[in-house]
Amino acid sequence: MTQGNYKDKKAAVYSLLTRIPKGKVVTYGQIAEALELPTPRLVGRILHQNNEPEKYPCHRVVFADGKLSPAYAFGGDGVQRRKLEYEGVIFKKLKVNLEESRHTFSLGEIERNPLF
């Protein structure tokens, strides 16, 4: 997705969130790369505006090193960690163990995005 307005980009990010299985996480960068967005920060801005966190599980998105965002919009990183642990995500101290818990988007998941 190299063009399109902000609303389209937001819809694409939310659509991709629904493809992250429980017990897995992705990084902001993975979403940006999959959707050809200019920066992972744009993904963060979009997720911060999520009005339906139960429908669009933004708690499953973490930093590239596995750290959680202290600015997690729905209660901070403590709430995010509890949600992830409840789903079975593996942690190493303060970071998600990305070797165990990272989800990799398949080409089919990306191509099923309604904006492609």
From TrEMBL:
Gene Ontology terms, MF aspect: catalytic activity
A Pfam family matched in the record: DNA_binding_1
Methylated-DNA-[protein]-cysteine S-methyltransferase DNA binding domain sequence ranges: 11-89
SUPFAM superfamilies assigned to the protein according to its UniProt record, in alphabetical order: Methylated DNA-protein cysteine methyltransferase, C-terminal domain
A GO biological process held by the record: DNA repair
Keyword entries, A-Z: DNA damage
Signal peptide: none
Keyword Metal-binding recorded: no
Name of this chain's protein: MGMT family protein
Organism: Candidatus Dojkabacteria bacterium
Lineage: Bacteria, Candidatus Dojkabacteria
